[in-house]
Design goal:
single chain, alpha+beta, Cytochrome p450, 51% helix
């Protein structure tokens, strides 16, 4: 029986989320966490950076829907965190909706939502089809490809750059900066690269307005200044390149390793959308995030969390909480969208319909082009990139009959 007593994190041995061992098999780690700690787990996001990881579905929903007790503003926490800390760029305060509350959150979110909602879904689908066709064309005559570097990333990068009105040269720097931040290996340098690149994009669109998200943000009644504009773009790129790339890659992996699911897809008993939702349940591209920073000790189901220490939601663990699926059959998650991969509450993702459309259109194009595609290596040889936040493969090599 698991005790409901939760000692302060300093008195417990934290789980190291940045270790390669965690990245290699996080689901086994979540099971061990549940057995040892229950729904709230002491972890380290980087050396000496303590946090509480929420792996209980009910507890996560309660926290995500309680912004007064669990605000997203990290400024008190980061006072004791050096700028060289590898996870700080992913967690530090920025003037954007993700790291704000109250009136400021409303101001930033309303501007972002308005700019995103003006994207025409039919035009977006046509854009993705063209970009996906170009990507597939690059390796159509070959016998193999890496679906990370040759398919998913180029599509996410080119589509997002088009939506934001970002030229390739600036977009390449932004993608480089975001990758360094997510990997937490050279995050400080990644932050510098990213901030300069988005500043250049804002300057460009102030001089030359266009029909894109960046221009609409500039024109919004929130009257965002250059610094605020840059941080809105950092958020959009952070949510748009890495997670979207990983969603497409993880879904392709699922189709390649799960023969039963692949068979139901080919027989039209399931769809690419079902595959996406299965992945969003089992291996969401952003596995651990949705961070809050309680300003006072916070009671969660009789367990008190310390003030000014990050509370991280494990979407991957919460989605697979045995309490959520108890008594349900093995196919209960197919077509079910109760997962937390898009978060919930005031900080839920405002662009989920766009992400679904991009991923579904791109993967459908790939499977139509190469219905006989197979993994080029045994599934157990695929390597996951270490990092406390994402669920990301280093590569996904595939082979297919030449045309």
């Amino acid at each position: 029986m698991i005790s409901t007593h939760y000692d302060p994190p300093d008195a417990l041995s934290p789980v190291l989320l940045y270790a390669p061992e965690f990245a290699a098999d996080p689901h086994a780690a979540y099971e061990r966490m549940r057995e040892t700690y229950g729904p709230l787990v002491p972890v380290e996001l980087a050396p000496d950076v303590r946090a509480t990881l929420v792996i209980g579905y009910a507890q996560a929903r309660s926290i995500l829907n309680d912004p007064l007790r669990f605000p997203a503003d990290p400024r008190a926490w980061q006072e004791s965190i050096p700028e060289t800390c590898p996870v700080r760029p992913m967690m530090e305060w920025r003037p954007n909706a993700l790291r704000s509350g109250g009136a400021e959150h409303y101001r930033y979110r309303s501007a972002n939502t308005a700019a995103i909602e003006e994207v025409d879904q039919h035009e977006l689908r046509a854009l993705v089809e063209k970009v996906a066709d170009d990507a597939v064309g690059e390796f159509r005559s070959a016998e193999r490809a890496d679906l990370v570097t040759q398919f998913a990333f180029p599509i996410a990068f080119r589509v997002l750059s088009a939506l934001l009105g970002c030229p390739d040269e600036i977009g390449t720097r932004i993608a480089d900066g975001m990758a360094r931040i997510f990997d937490t290996t050279d995050a400080a340098r990644g932050n510098e690269i990213l901030e300069q690149a988005v500043s250049d994009l804002v300057s460009l669109r102030r001089r030359h307005p266009a029909d894109d998200i960046t221009t609409r943000l500039i024109a919004h009644s929130a009257q965002l200044d250059d610094v605020e504009m840059g941080h809105q773009l950092v958020t959009l790129y952070g949510a748009g390149i890495e997670p979207l790339t990983n969603l497409m890659v993880n879904t392709c992996r699922r189709l390649l390793v799960d023969e039963e699911f692949s068979a139901t897809l080919h027989s039209a008993q399931s769809t690419i959308r079902d595959a996406l939702d299965t992945v969003l349940y089992k291996d969401p591209p952003l596995a651990n995030y949705c961070i809050s920073y309680p300003p006072y000790p916070a009671d969660v189901g009789g367990i008190v969390l310390p003030a000014h220490q990050p509370v991280v939601i494990s979407m991957a663990a919460c989605n697979n909480d045995p309490e959520l699926t108890r008594g349900l059959g093995p196919d209960a998650i197919v077509g079910n969208r109760a997962h937390l991969a898009w978060s919930t509450g005031p900080h839920s993702c405002p662009a989920r319909s766009h992400a679904y459309l991009i991923a579904e259109t791109a993967i459908s194009h790939l499977t139509d082009a190469f219905p006989e595609m197979d993994l080029a290596v045994p599934a157990e040889e695929l390597c996951w990139r270490p990092g406390p936040f994402h669920r990301a493969l280093e590569s996904l090599p595939v082979i297919f009959p030449t045309i």
